[in-house]
Amino acid sequence: IQSKKGVNGIIAPHRDHARTTSLFFLLESNNEETVWWEKTGDFEEFDFFRFADVTKIKRAHSEIIKQNRWYIFNNAEYHSVHPTEPSQGPRTTLCIEFDGVSADELNSLINNEKH
Questions:
Q1: pLDDT 10s digits, 35-47
Q2: Which tens digits make up the pLDDT trace of 8-56?
Q3: For residues 70-80, b (16+ Cβ closer than 10 Å) or e, as one string?
Q4: Which of 5, 10, 47, 105 is exposed most, by the fewest CB atoms within 10 A?
Q5: In what order do the strands lie in the sheet with 91-98?
Q6: Rounded to 5 degrees, what angle do the CA atoms 102, 25, 84 make?
Q7: How far is 91 from 11, CA to CA, in rounded Å?
Q8: How many CA atoms within 13 Å lie on the side-chain side of 46?
Q9: What angle do CA 57, 60, 62 make, to 5 degrees?
Q10: Residue 41 CB-half CA count within 13 A
Q11: Which candidate, 66, 70, 1, 2, places its Cα nearest to that of 34?
């Protein structure tokens, strides 16, 4: 279980450590928007937290993740979290984390198990 709250409700564009993909279940939220980014140029990631150089990324996709629903979350891609209203508390999630398994591979594994 993870509980995070960014500066002014924002968690800057970054990639995660020690996990490439998660099964992600949102327990508490403030209707934050999750944004995924793609690189537009090469850069060195900033410090331990693997922050992106915001001058060398562009918005690829965004979504307001719904509570009480499972998602496959691509932690290997740059992503950020943005409040859509004044933030009241942290975003709390249940994550089953995978390292070395891509989001596409996890999706295939789950869908093959259903059949």
A1: 999 999 999 887 7
A2: 778 899 998 888 999 999 998 888 999 999 999 999 887 777 899 999 9
A3: ebbbbbbbbbb
A4: 47
A5: 2-4, 91-98, 21-28, 70-74
A6: 100
A7: 11
A8: 10
A9: 120
A10: 5
A11: 66
The whole-model pTM stands at 0.84
What is the rounded distance in angstroms from the CA atom of residue 40 to the CA atom of residue 7? Answer: 25
> If we measure between CA atoms, which residue out of 28, 31, 36, 15 comes closest to residue 93?
28
Nearest to 16 by CA among 81, 86, 75: 75
Determine contact, residues 70/107, Cβ cutoff 8 Å. Answer: no
